[in-house]
Structure formats: C-alpha cells, structure tokens
Task: structure prediction
Amino acid sequence: MSNSNHAAAHGFTVKAAQPATPLNFVMPADACDCHTHIHGAVETFPYFAGRLYTPGPALPDEMAALHEALGIRRVVIVTPSVYGTDNAATLYGMRARGADARGVAVLGEQVSARELDLMHAAGIRGMRINLHTGGTSDPRLARERFKAAAQRMQARGWHIQIFTTLDMVVALQDDIAASPVPVVLDHFGGAQAAGGVQQAGFEVLLSLLGCGHVYVKISGAYRCSTRAPDYADCTPLAQALLKANADRIVWGSDWPHPHSAVQDATRPAPFYAIDDGRLLNQLADWAPHAVLRRKILVENPARLYDF
Result:
C-alpha cells in the first residue's frame, strides 16, 4: 500500500490522536489493548541511531487518557523499531500502569540471563521479531532469526511476536507450526483487506490458528485498509480468523499510530489521525456477541500475557 494512499485515507496529526467517537458496545471488565507503543522524551529515551523514522513523543499519561476513554484497563506495550534493542521506554510505560501492564521486548544477542530475569519481573512476556520495519525479506535469514528466538524463549516461557507480511508467514509456516513456544502474528498476520479471504496465503494463516499455539492480533486495521474511518473491508478477514479459532485472537489499537513508512530519520514522522473509538467500534461488527468480545478482549489476553 503506497504512502500517498495512506495519507489520502487517514490524514496526519503532529500529536498522537485521542478517541473522538464513543463506544457502541459495553466494554467488558479487565479488557486489554494488546498492542501499543510508548515513545519517551528523547532526552531520556534516545532513539536508535539506525532507525528508519523518527516519531514524536507518545507518553504514558496520553496512553492512560486513551484507555480511560475506551474503558480499557489492561495494556501490552511493545518496543518499537526506533529503539533497536533498548527496552527502557517500554519498561517506563509499564511502570506507569503497574500490574495492569505487560510488555514485549526486542532483544539483542548479548542480553544476559540477569537482564531477562529483571524484564520478566517487570512484566515482559514476549520477544518481538520485526521483519517488516527495517527487517528482512529473506526467508532463510528470517527462519534463522525465528529458530534462535524460539530456543531462547522456550527456556524463559515467553512467546514470540512477529511483525511481517503474509508472504513471509507462508514461508515460515512449518517453523511457526512446530514452534515450542506461542507465536503471535501482528496486524491480521499481514493480510490486506483488498485481497479478501481468497488472497494467497490467507488459508495458511487460518490453518496456523488451528495449531493451538499461534495467535493473531486483529489490530492496526488501518494498516490493512485505506477505507477510513471505519475500515469495514477488514470485516471478512476478522470474521474468518475468529471462525478459525476464536480462542487465539486478541485485539490491539496500535496506538500511537506513527507513520513509520516515511523511513526518513532526518525529519520527524507525523502520526496517522486515527479515531481509536471508531476503530474499536468495528469489533462489534467483527464479533457481534458480548461473550465472543470478552474472549478477545479479556480471556485470551489474560492467558497469553499472564495477567
């Protein structure tokens, strides 16, 4: 999907957006937003020199306001690519939310067992492999990274979270199916709304959900669609994923929605002007029954993230 199409569909804002639309369903108690990011003040949390974009700040109090407006108690904070393997900003955001927060870290090869122990005590429960933003399109290299991560996570009892394309999911399907630890696939597993449920590779994604240890985040609908502000063309994808295995689907906002596709670290990247209230209201179409929404928002995250 081109940058110009994204701009035309969503618009941009300098400051991370807050919800403008009230919810059209009752949020269950202990609901969890399973995909967010914190960008701390750059003086305290400097960005990685090799980053491909430079987002503005997105602070814990802003995230708290977002979730108060949406009626969401729990949160999972994921280290974004702009920090490389430095998880300090993620841990800072988690401390601000206390016991209601969990995290997913990006790990360097030299991280010590002591550091991992401290991360676990702080609430980190997974390792992210970002094959999309500054990652790799080489299946062989991706497979090596995945296998190494699985081995590390098996001893720790954490899961692996992967941000990649549907083509790469297909290339890694045997490794994902055989993984000794849970695998979480970001943002509809890389599927695109325009391709529908018949797009190449989507049947592989549905099959992987049947493994029992593979989760898919129905998150970042604006990454899959240009049909703002409702992204209704993501509905067939979400419903197909839920039909395949509703016990392995979680939801995330992807706040604060940085325009990472800019890939020019010499100038600040804006945020997408996403109305997270309107975006979350799509869940009522994807999962019309309150029991199913509770599974997605409460029960599945509690299991996966050890709440």
